[in-house]
Amino acid sequence: MAKESLKTKNTPAKNSIQADFCMLADALRQKNAYQEAASNYLNAILINRNDENSYYGLGLCYKALENYAKAIKYLEKAAEIKPDFYEAYYELGLCHLAEGIPCGAIKSFVQAIQINPEKPEAILQLGIAHEMCDEADMSLMIYQKLIENSPKFVKAYEKKADLLMKLNDYKEASLLYNKILKLNPEFYRAYLGIGTCFDKLGKRIEAQRYYRKFLLKKPNSHKAPVVKARIEKLKTIGKNEMPFNIV
């Protein structure tokens, strides 16, 4: 009985030390000191092996260090301890994508969506995972459903437009980029997207106009020199010359 009583007596102190390690680790991670943060998360786990937040933080550290195999290991442990841990499943999905394992990503994002269907980011990433599986039709369906459910979520329009561009459906892609500009006139990538769509469709004047709008919004972009050169080329090329892809 004395031994059992002593164990109970020490528990609050251990919990306090574990919490201190975890708080320090969180602070270090926020400062991008990932190696030091990981050491403190491990110290916290040694004291309490059932604290999902320590495993989650450790997983995020390894994700930031691009050690995705370890990140997946610890994020899975966090989700095992707390089955309704949305953030753990979401981050797991991102790590699987980074590792080039779209099937694992799909499973994780589906879990996250089931826990919280109101967050559009997991649904967007699910569409990206299906793209990696060469399931364009599924991705388009997911992006469209996301647009319908979250009509102000610009990223959904962008991902669908980008995919339509890959599928050579430039007319539909340009319409989506235009919808983005109605939601956010400062979204410079949409101007570049529309310009490229018109370029691909052989509409040289319209392409130049939107390329110039892109340059006005983002004059220091790494793509700016290529866009400027393309504008000059469009002034002189013949109608039968093949269009150029910038995006």
From TrEMBL:
The lineage of its organism: Bacteria, Candidatus Scatousia. Keywords: Repeat, TPR repeat. TPR repeats lie at residues 52-85, 86-119, 154-187, 188-221. This is Tetratricopeptide repeat protein. It holds the Pfam family TPR_8. PROSITE patterns: TPR, TPR_REGION. The keyword Repeat applies. The keyword Repeat applies.
